[in-house]
Design goal:
This protein is an alpha+beta fold and about 150 residues long. The strands form five sheets. Strands 5, 6, 9, 12 and 13 form a five-stranded antiparallel sheet that branches. It has a two-stranded antiparallel sheet with strand order 1-4. The chain has a two-stranded antiparallel ribbon with strand order 2-3.
Amino acid sequence: MDYAEHLSTGVGLREVVLTSLHEQNGAQVTYAPDATTTGDLTGVALPNEVSFCVSLRTGNRGRSARGRWYWLSVNQSQMVDDNNLTTQALGDLPGDMNALMAAIEAISFMPVIVSYRTNNAPRVGGPVYFPITNCTAVDSTVDSMKRRKPGVGS
């Protein structure tokens, strides 16, 4: 698995932040590599607000047991055909995410979806953690993330 091979050369890894969710003010560790790792795809990346959504699935159903990973730096020439991901990219991106989840599990960590609320109210007894079992694409449409547009939102 090489996550970087499906990112634009304009994207670089600066740091990874890990936070323990075992308690409210759990420990946090930041790893900053000595050298910046950048993406491998040359060519034009679509603007910041253009993304592709990979669905993070668990063994449970419902909105609170699912998550989303928005793939940044969608490459126009190598990944997109009109408003859809190419067949190749449609297989590569969820595949990369599944490989990333497996790599995290291989070092004895569990990627999870954290749910703090149910029926629009805080969960009694605190948050529930749903282990991620699969990453998949539910469609091929390139998504608009207007809040991620430079100068808009946070």
